[in-house]
Amino acid sequence: MKYRDRNEITAQILESANGNRVRLTKIMYDGYLSHTVTKEYLVLLIEKGLIEYLDGERTFKTTEKGMNFLRIHHRVQELTPVAPTLHSRVEKVSFL
Prior knowledge:
Blueprint: H1 6-16, H2 24-31, H3 35-47, E1 51-54, E2 59-62, H4 64-79, H5 86-92
Antiparallel strand pairs: 1-2
C-alpha cells in the first residue's frame, strides 16, 4: 500500500461516514487502519468538528464542516497531478 498523508487518511474516514451512520469497525475496514490509529483520528476529527459521534447509536457521521473538507480535498486532488516517482524521472535524464 502506498504512503498516505494525514489529509488522505482524514478524507478516507470522512468518506466512510459521509451521509451514513457507520460504526468504528466500518471506518477501520474502509480505511485499512488499525483500531488504535482509527480512534486517534476520530478523536481529532470530533475535536475539529469534522465528524460527530452519535452516542445512543454508537455510530459516526460526517458533519457539514467535514463535507466541506471533502469537497476542498477532492478539488485539490484534481488540481495537483500525481507526480512521477523519482526513479522514473532519473531514467529520463540522459546525462546521468
